[in-house]
């Protein structure tokens, strides 16, 4: 699907087609016909578009060191996306997002899956209208991707803190599955953000940016936000590793406590069973001929059980 967008009153609004005022072509899950149309019309290398269809495509730069755009240029970044893991919990992954600069001053973005950051970008006002449209969109979309990494990282931190609160009583595996999904999300984030940082740093020396003074402050903010996400990811990954180890130990300890209590109760409940078994034999036994034998046996059994319970509690076994 191809959406044509133009800038109107400081916002991106739909355009009917690729006319003069349509500056942004937002392409999502393109068909073969749409791919061929874009390649033919804008003279694009085929891998500029088809590369995004591979979820494992790495961030990279192509053609941004031209003094002027005599050929299309590509900037490919990784963006965060929420999915449901095989274990049934929320997991964050990263997917490729292509920003293609055409020779006629238009921007084509290609994505294979829907993205929250792109939907949010379409509602954001455009403030830096003094920049050329291609520079503006590169910085604008890079900023949206960076901020969404930090937004999703905050969600992961909340999930981790919630799981920590469940450690005291947990004897089940579901929290371990959730922790595993958080770890996987952080691993994906660490690789994607590191890759994005390398590409964004290349923008400092990109020759197609005519006026560095106008875009450098904004680029600096983007790099600071991305570096913050990278640092947060590394810290959280270490913390989650430690929490996961602690989690496993606590779950094991909780199970040991349960088994300890059950074993102690089994010992206590064995006492009346033994006494009942002895008095079930056809031999002469104390109190066997008394009319109140049951009550004597009941008192002896209860007294013995009480004594054993107190001894077990004193030794912290019950």
Q: Which short descriptors sum up this protein?
A:
318 residues, alpha+beta, 7-stranded mixed sheet, 7 helices, 7 strands
Could you please describe the fold and organization of this structure?
The chain is α+β, with helices and mostly antiparallel strands. The protein is 54% helix and 15% strand. A 7-stranded mixed sheet has the order 2-1-3-7-6-5-4. A hairpin with a 2-residue loop joins strand 1 and strand 2 (11-14). Helix 4 runs antiparallel to helix 5. It is rod-shaped, with a radius of gyration of 33 Å. The two termini are 66 Å apart. The mean pLDDT is 78.
In short:
By secondary structure, this protein is an alpha+beta fold. Helices cover 54% and strands 15% of the residues.
Strand order of the largest sheet: 2-1-3-7-6-5-4
> Biggest sheet, open or closed, and with what strands and sense?
7 strands, mixed
The tally of strands reads 7
Gross geometry:
rod-shaped
List SSEs in N-to-C order. Answer: EEEHHEEEEHHHHH
Helical fraction equals: 40-55%
Gap from first CA to last CA: 66 Å
How many helices? Answer: 7
Name the assembly state: single chain
Cα-based radius of gyration, to the nearest Å: 33 Å
Question: What's the average pLDDT?
Answer: 78
Structural class: alpha+beta
Low-confidence stretches: none
Strand content: 15-25%
